[in-house]
Amino acid sequence: MELTLTQPDDWHLHLRDGDLLQAVAPHSANHFGRAVVMPNLKPPITTTAAAIAYRESILKAVSAGSNFTPLMTLYLTDTTSPDEIKLARRGGVVFAVKLYPAGATTNSQDGVTDLFGKCLPVLEEMVEQNMPLLVHGEVTDSNVDVFDREKVFINTVLQPLIQRLPRLKVVMEHITTMDAVRFVESGKEGFLAATVTPQHLLLNRNALFQGGLQPHNYCLPVLKREIHRQAIVSAVTSGSKRFFLGTDSAPHERQRKECPCGCAGIYNAPVALSLYAKVFEEAGALNKLEAFTSFNGPDFYGLPRNNSKIKLMKTTWKVPESFSFSFGDIIPMLAGETLQWQPGFS
């Protein structure tokens, strides 16, 4: 058995820089036609000029002859200017702006501290330029339980934002709760959407602790209860156009995960398509997989769908235990496990 799909895109990807970029970029380029690349480097990508330079680094890191296209983003700060948004649109390589609440996740210390007080002119210019806002949807108040931070963010930030700027295109990234599902489904189609990761479709928070602490299942937003996982699966396999593929693949060298204060992030690029197929097959919805992987994202962004095809073959294969490089090892999601779907090319 095999499936032929329009080549998917990854609408939320971390490629890092330096040696890590060189190591992981080919894994994404092998499977995806395009990817929205996150800007949370050190220093962050806050200008169009920096985004153009980062794009060139990415293209050099993928194999010769690859058609992989990185879609760049800007990192929103308290000091981002409306003129930078105009420049980004004119430049033609920046496709969105990323909102990280300061301190929410990896390399987010330069993020926004007061969205409405300091960023409103920029958000208004984004409406004029039809530039989407990509949101890491968690509050950072230490008094809010880590498992409630997405829900509280929806109520205190996203709902007021959409009421104030109803024509702003917003993508709620890597949703993890039924609250996020309901929020996205309640919005205006074409203006509010969500990306969904393999880990939040397959794992619940038990996966962090089964058999001992599991650092390679630790990501932000953190995995949630089973009832939330089921709600997300139901949403993405329903055929709704509001949800699309975004792996949030986030590589870290092994020693930065297996240490007293391990980094958040799951490296899933090599297995993501296999895992999405598993989820849709188990839901009896393989006929809706292609829309989720290949149609809903470009349609929301107003971009053409890919012309190339990819095959998913129903054949068992074992996920590598690790990927070894000169700087160390990267452990993929579900390392050492056997999967039932394997990507290839038409």
What does this structure look like?
The protein is of the alpha/beta class and 346 residues long. It has a single domain (2-345), classed as Alpha-Beta Barrel (TIM Barrel), CATH 3.20.20. Helices cover 35% and strands 18% of the residues. It is built from twelve helices and 13 strands. The protein has helices spanning 18-31, 48-61, 82-91, 115-118, 120-129, 149-164, 178-186, 198-202, 226-236, 254-257, 272-282, 289-301, and strands at 2-6, 10-13, 34-37, 69-75, 94-99, 133-135, 170-172, 192-196, 243-245, 309-318, 323-325, 328-330, 338-345. The strands form three sheets. Strands 2-3-4-5-6-7-8-9 form an eight-stranded parallel beta sheet. Strands 1-10-13 form a three-stranded antiparallel beta sheet. Helix 6 links the parallel strand 6 and strand 7 (170-172). Helix 1 crosses helix 2 (48-61) and helix 3 runs parallel beside helix 5. The protein is globular, with a radius of gyration of 19 Å. Belongs to the metallo-dependent hydrolases superfamily. DHOase family. Class II DHOase subfamily. Pathway: Pyrimidine metabolism; UMP biosynthesis via de novo pathway; (S)-dihydroorotate from bicarbonate: step 3/3.
CATH homologous group name: Metal-dependent hydrolases
Gyration radius, rounded: 19 Å
What share of the residues lie within helices?
25-40%
CATH architecture title: Alpha-Beta Barrel
Count of distinct strands: 13
The helix tally amounts to 12
